[in-house]
Write a structure and sequence with these properties.
mainly alpha, 155 residues, 47% helix, ion transport, chloride, Cl_channel_volt-gated, CBS_dom_sf, two-stranded antiparallel ribbon
Length: 155
């Protein structure tokens, strides 16, 4: 079987570019430039292995440029570096959930504002049955709405 040095050059170039940039999109660029889908497997294996090895040893060229120019960036977040990753929503949510839907009356909004004085925003759902979250409304907006529509607020 014949040995084509051009194939090795393309595989090596793709592996080098993938390792430097820490991206796998180099595969698409190489196949668009060369038009040879026949060498998909060797190029893919080389890029993935080079990317994995280089990711272990050093940051990508883009991260290096950001650090050299002292630009703001998001640091790497390790899975065990923060206690907040272990907090589940049931530990911080108000139970039972106080929400506003199309069926909610002004009296109910007034009662919720009095019952929950520390809650700053209330979720808005489409109906009491489906409970699909549509957004939220702040406490001050609700108080202003009550004062405007009904004439009584919580204060």
């Amino acid at each position: 079987q014949a040995i084509y040095p051009g194939i090795y050059a393309v595989v090596g170039t793709a592996a080098f570019a993938g390792a430097v940039t820490h991206t796998v999109s180099v595969l698409v660029i190489i196949f668009e430039v060369t038009g040879q889908v026949l060498f998909l497997l060797p190029v893919m294996i080389a890029v993935i292995i080079a990317n994995a090895v280089c990711s272990y040893f050093q940051p990508s060229i883009f991260d290096s440029i950001i650090r050299m120019k002292h630009l703001p960036y998001l640091p790497d977040i390790r899975s065990t570096s923060s206690v907040f990753h272990a907090i589940t929503v049931d530990r911080i949510m108000v139970s039972p959930v106080q929400f506003i839907s199309r069926e909610t009356t002004y009296r109910r909004v007034h009662d919720m504002l009095i019952m929950m004085p520390r809650l700053r925003a209330f979720p808005i759902v489409d109906s009491n049955e489906s409970m699909t979250l549509l957004g939220s409304v702040s406490r001050t907006q609700l108080e202003d709405m009550l004062d405007l529509k009904v004439g009584f607020g919580t204060s």
